[in-house]
Amino acid sequence: MHPIADLQLLVLLIFANGTPVIAKWILGRRWQWPLDHGLRLGDGRPLLGASKTARGLVLSVLVTSAGAPVLGLSWRIGALVAAAAMAGDLLSSFTKRRLGRPSSSRALGLDQIPESLLPALACAGALGLSPWDVALVVAVFFAGEILLSRVLYRAHVRDEPY
Q1: Per the domain annotation, does 162 fall within a domain?
Q2: What is the pLDDT tens value at each position of the chain, 162 positions in all?
Q3: Has residue 93 been placed in a domain?
Q4: b/e string for 6-44 if b means 16 or more Cβ within 10 A?
Q5: What global pTM score does this model have?
Q6: Which residue range forms the structural domain that includes residue 67?
Q7: Which one of 47, 79, 85, 147 has the fewest beta carbons within 10 angstroms of its own beta carbon?
């Protein structure tokens, strides 16, 4: 177990996944360009949905890259964590659209696991994480994201309590 590396990764995951939420709260609709440009696939459903924006992606990578050195890590690790977290989030959105779920709908597990598992796997070697560390980080992120989402909803930062 590597508790310091686990904690560093958890903080980076909070930066990566929280930045788009905070950006939406602060910036509203400014610079909110959907990544899929409204593209609909053969099933008639959006590729990703309007809530996945270039603003969220770019700011996630920038903020997480800037936060990594504060935690004693390379900015490159921060960029890797953010890029992998955003890839996991996009994979979740793509999957939910294929399942017929609307944008910003809740899918327990699908909303938390890819955006924490992919970054944990991507930087496991660089941070010296064992499979147990990866599992622990995903489990803690899963529980923490559910609790924190409700707090942010009550504080009127999130539009949905999940």
Answers
A1: no
A2: 789 999 999 999 999 999 999 999 999 989 999 999 999 999 999 999 989 999 999 999 999 999 999 999 999 999 999 999 999 999 999 999 999 988 777 888 998 999 999 999 999 999 999 999 999 999 999 999 999 888 877 888 877 776
A3: yes
A4: bebbbbbbbbbbbbbbbbbeeeeeeeeebbbeeeeeeee
A5: 0.91
A6: 3-154
A7: 147
